[in-house]
Specification:
The chain is an alpha+beta fold. 34% of the residues lie in helices and 29% in strands. The longest helix is centred in the N-terminal third of the chain and has 22 residues, at 38-59.
C-alpha cells in the first residue's frame, strides 16, 4: 500500500444550510484517496454535517453572511478535520456537550451533535470563545480496504 502523507485542503463557504451537503461531499471526496470503507465514509460525512449545521444554526444564528471554515488533512492513514466558525461561541461548553441538550429547542434539534461527533471519531476537541467563535477538531484513523487485500 502506498503511503499518502502531508496532503490537505481548505474550504470556506457561506453559512447557508444548502452548503452543508456540499461540505459533506467535498470532505468525502478528499478522504476517498485513502480508500475508506463505506462505514468510515458515512461516519465522516455525518460528523461534517453535524459540525457544519452547528456552525450555521448556533454559531451564526442562521445568518448567511457568516463563513464556515473546514480544514482537512491526511497524514498517512489519519484524517484530521477542523471545522470552525467565527460566530457567537458557546457560553457553557459542558452543558452544550450533554446528550439531548439544545439551545434551540424551538427548531426541534436533537441535541446529539457533539455526542455523535465524539462517538464517530477517534479524537474530538471543542474550543470556543464567547463572541469569538467555535472550533471543532476531530481525528479518525482510516482502516483502508487496500490493507485487507495485501
Amino acid at each position: 500500500m502506498s503511503e499518502k502523507s502531508g496532503n490537505f485542503m481548505n474550504l470556506q463557504f457561506a453559512a447557508k444550510s444548502e452548503n452543508e451537503s456540499f461540505a459533506r461531499v467535498t470532505v468525502a471526496a478528499f478522504v476517498s484517496q485513502l480508500d475508506p470503507t463505506m462505514e468510515e465514509i458515512t461516519d465522516l460525512k455525518t460528523v461534517v454535517s453535524e459540525a457544519v449545521t452547528n456552525c450555521i444554526i448556533h454559531g451564526y444564528d442562521n445568518d448567511p453572511s457568516g463563513i464556515v471554515y473546514i480544514h482537512a488533512e491526511i497524514e498517512q492513514d489519519v484524517v484530521t478535520l477542523v471545522i470552525e466558525d467565527k460566530g457567537r461561541g458557546i457560553e457553557d461548553m459542558e452543558l452544550a456537550k450533554q446528550p439531548l441538550y439544545t439551545s434551540k429547542p424551538e427548531l426541534e434539534r436533537s441535541g446529539m451533535g457533539f455526542t455523535i461527533m465524539e462517538n464517530f471519531m477517534d479524537e474530538f476537541e471543542l474550543v470556543s470563545e464567547v463572541g469569538g467563535g467555535t472550533s471543532i477538531r476531530m481525528k479518525k484513523r482510516i482502516e483502508s480496504k487496500k490493507a485487507l487485500y495485501n
